[in-house]
Amino acid sequence: MKKITIKFEPEGRKVETNPDQKILDVAEESGIGLRSECGGKASCGKCRIIIQDQSRVSEVIDLERNHLSESEISAGYRLACCTVAKGDLVVEIPEESRIRVRRIQITGMERPVKLEPLVKKFHMVLPKPTLHDIRPDAERMLDALNDEYGITGLELSQRLLRNLPDILREKDWDVTTVLWNDKKLVAVEPGDTSNILYGFAVDIGTSKIVGYLVNLVSGETEEISYIENPQISHGEDVMTRISYTLEGEKGLTRLQRLVVGAINSLMKQACSTAGITTKNIYEITIVGNTAMHHFFLGIQPKYVSYTPYVPAVKSPLNVRTSDLSLALEPEVNVYVLPCVAGFVGADAVGDVIASGVCESEERSLLIDIGTNTEVFVGNSEDILACSCASGPAFEGAHIKYGMKAVTGAIEKIKINSGSLEVSYKTIDNEPPVGICGSGILDGIAELFRTGVINNRGRFKKEVDNNRLIQQNGVKEFVIARGNETITGNDITITQADIGEIQLSKGAIHTGVAITMRRRGYTKEDLDHVYVAGAFGYHIDPMSAKILGMLPDIPTEKIKFVGNTAVTGAKMCLTSKETRDAAYTLSKKIRYLELAVDPDFQKEFVNSMYLPYKNIEEYPTITKLLSKETKK
């Protein structure tokens, strides 16, 4: 078959490929950043490209017309997920369709723990064999471990035996053994390497993967590396990716290979910066939501998405790196933290551990806001948890000008009460390209505060301002005018955008309200509200309270704790005691399935209002709105 050449602009990157392939697939396989929040299902409309010579591609289909106007199609706009290349062509990726490096929350609250990693090193100088002492090499080493350290019953793999004779003799029988949990021999190294001992803690997020390179001698984090989760090309959200695994036998294998490859890349990057090699990493700890947990382990995840949402396993797992194709010594242990339920995963266990909710008598609410939001209510006595399907709107999906938190994204918005003039801040202070999650929350909160929308989220008919425009019969509020933006188009908040955020915040409010009710708490009972996760770290607490995402409590009680999932994984990496506590915690946390709660439907309907149907439950917001009305 004759190859064709596709040139991707503005990078000028030329890719040789087979004809009759979708352009989105070619871009993905070539590592070219092209947005596709729906995983190529033609439902998000974000993979817009421009092709001037339409004779070299397939014809426009109806799915594309759902997202592109006739004038755009005439100008050469297409959707990459629907467009098949037929010959050599040039594809322009417009600014709004490019994947940019985004701001990722890599740090989080971390509590001190007793330094007691499960992987340890033991330095020994073995007696040399003689005609009077002809013990085999392995037996000689095991006897020395018993004599010097009292360690017996070790597992010894065939892999380690291969090179053992040479290693023992390389430094004249001066060696360091690496043991895991005093049960398994991980490695044997020539000389005294006892001060070189590292581990790697990983948070596999739906949208990003973060890794901590940890010195297990000191307990300190030496390097942090992160990357976009490459699975994102197969869907922005968990459910889309699970659907991808059902399309063919290779789907799950593909997703596992992508995440393992990303972790290998992170380890290599962190080790290079630290001046060590990946051979110096002797254990990995992993957290992720239940679907990410299953993808990483290659476990069929589809039943997590079917009622009653049962995971294949929830207990902690210890797996060899050789079983997962991780680029480390084959006997290195991979510890995967336990899950709680189908939609409360190991990352949520990390959140609870790092925040200390499980060890304090004070009453706390912990929320990890994301595509799937986990809610925990309780203290050391009892913790009740639930999961809210908050959706990908906070990541910019289903929002007309929504985008991730990358350069040029509007992240902060203020609206003048009288003139309705808008001031905004973009990431890196670049000209605006779109609006990220924190910006869309600010924008809608400000529209409500200034009386542009009512508590049902609808634009008020009586508002007359040149920023309130109408496109195809639908009202939109202009945040940034075309002459200010990088694309030359107005960036607006639409009625549909407001509806998407209402659904997301309504799900969170419902989860918090019902879980607190079932735990027997009122908002006055709360000593702390912890907001975890990358998105939660950047939201304005007042905007969140105006919308009803967070309870109306004093702001000083609200603490944004960052990426506690990965710090929880680190705590388990450095402390056997914490690892044991995580297992106990996963069994102790009570899970509440919201969908079967008798109050769910009514609570969700009431939670769709801003901030809530009974606004008297938000006295601070009521007072704020009253002041605005009087201005």
Any overview of this molecule?
With 631 residues, the protein is an alpha/beta fold. It has four domains: 4-97, Ubiquitin-like (UB roll), CATH 3.10.20.30; 119-190, Ubiquitin-like (UB roll) (Roll); 347-390 and 505-628, Nucleotidyltransferase, domain 5 (2-Layer Sandwich); 393-501, no CATH class. 30% of the residues lie in helices and 22% in strands. It contains 17 helices and 26 strands. The strands form seven sheets. It has a six-stranded mixed β-sheet with strand order 11-10-9-12-14-13, with helices on both faces. The chain has a six-stranded mixed β-sheet with strand order 25-24-15-16-17-26, with helices on both faces. It has a three-stranded mixed β-sheet with strand order 2-1-5, with no helix packed on it. Helix 10 packs across helix 13 and helix 11 (495-519) packs across helix 16 (600-607). The longest helix has 25 residues, at 250-274. The termini are far apart.
The 3D shape can be described as: globular
What's the CATH architecture name of the largest domain? 2-Layer Sandwich
Write down the CATH topology of the largest domain. Answer: Nucleotidyltransferase, domain 5
State the name of the first-level CATH class of the largest domain. Answer: Alpha Beta
Number of DSSP strand runs? 26
Low-pLDDT residue spans: none
Q: Give the neighbour order of strands across the main sheet.
A: 11-10-9-12-14-13
What's the rounded overall pLDDT mean?
91
The share of residues in extended strands comes to: 15-25%
Q: What structural class do you assign from the helix and strand content?
A: alpha/beta
How many helices in DSSP terms?
Answer: 17
How many distinct domains? 4
Give the biggest beta sheet. 6 strands, mixed
Distance between the termini: 72 Å
